[in-house]
Design a protein that fits this description.
This protein is α/β, with parallel strands linked by helices. Helix content is about 40%, strand content about 20%. Helix 2 runs parallel beside helix 3, helix 2 packs antiparallel against helix 4 and helix 4 runs antiparallel to helix 5. The structure holds manganese (II) ion. This is Bifunctional oligoribonuclease/PAP phosphatase NrnA.
Length: about 325
């Protein structure tokens, strides 16, 4: 598979790289790093990253404006995206050839080539392994910084169980490049006072059930009170995981016409529940959308069932 991907990269002079909407450090890091790796390896090729700019991650990379006409003879690569409706910029279908590179459990099959490795911690880890394959691709400091950010992001700073020996070995390799690690961590983890106050609110108002399921509901009124929009609240999603007794948790964030749900777990598998509620993701970290607080209750009931079953199994 890696050979086929490298052959395609070698063949095309125009390469356009996509990733999922509402990017996280892995989506953006893998996308921009792949762009950089191809650029340094093939200076004569035109390589672009497309999608909406994400202001909170602009310290990692900015997106390119790509004319529709460029797609006609282009290779399109989509990073870190399991389902087609989550791909940022639907022009991904307009290229001459399409490649999917992802570490999420398979949802949609798409692309002329599909490289899917659910055992990889991150798509960034996969891009690094692609760069090591054969002699064609070359790393540089910019790409190393982006891949390190993606790995750190998707492993929760090497804390989640998706962190493997290979993850650590690659991270070690990447640290040999001379980027400013402190500045990178500040960009990823420094929080604004409003976010700190929201964390305080979450810790004062969460609910913890007998099954070990914890929930917090952030209504529009509450976010207005803290002066935050829905996407900024993602920085507080790990907060409830620090509490003793919490097995899985969900953060609901009310938006105009929908309620976003961020699901996390320390053991029970939850992505099938996310899939049942207009979402999906990893076994222990998923996202979903519900359209009323009654539907949010149903989502909680489904989570409660898997948490209880998990607790029983442990006994
Ligand atoms: Mn990822």
């Amino acid at each position: 598979m890696l050979d086929e991907i490298l052959t395609a990269i070698e063949k095309f002079n125009t390469i356009i790289i996509h990733r999922h909407v509402r990017p996280d450090p892995d989506a953006l890091g893998s996308q921009a790093a792949l762009q950089e790796v191809i650029r340094v390896s093939y200076p004569e090729k035109q390589v672009f990253s497309v999608g909406e700019n994400e202001p909170s991650l602009s310290f990692l990379a900015e997106m390119d404006d790509v004319d529709d006409a460029l797609y006609a003879n282009a290779l399109v690569i989509v990073c870190d995206t399991a389902n087609t409706d989550r791909i940022d910029d639907e022009r991904y279908q307009r290229g001459e050839m399409l490649i999917k590179i992802d570490h999420h459990p398979e949802v949609d099959q798409y692309g002329d080539l599909q490289w899917v490795e659910p055992s990889a911690s991150s798509t960034s880890e996969m891009i690094y392994s692609l760069s090591l394959h054969g002699e064609l691709l070359h790393m540089n400091t910019t790409a190393a910084r982006l891949l390190y950010a993606g790995i750190v992001g998707d492993t929760g700073r090497f804390m989640y169980p998706n962190t493997t020996k290979r993850t650590m070995a690659y991270a070690g390799d990447l640290l040999a490049y001379d980027f400013d690690r402190q500045q990178l961590f500040d960009g990823l983890y420094q929080i604004k006072p409003e976010i700190a106050k929201l964390k305080g609110y979450i810790l004062q108002n969460y609910i913890l059930g007998e099954s070990g399921l914890s929930t917090i509901r952030l209504t529009q009124d509450i976010m207005n009170e803290f002066g935050l929009d829905a996407s900024q609240t993602s920085q507080t999603v790990s907060t409830l995981g620090e509490l003793e007794g919490v097995v899985a948790w969900v953060m609901f964030v009310e938006e105009k016409n929908q309620i976003r749900a961020r699901l996390r777990s320390k053991g029970p598998i939850i992505n099938h529940i996310a899939e049942a509620f207009h979402g999906g993701g990893h076994p222990l970290a998923s996202g979903a959308t519900v359209y009323s607080w009654e539907e949010a209750d149903k989502l909680c009931q489904a989570l409660d069932v898997v948490c209880s079953a998990y607790a029983k199994k442990l006994k």
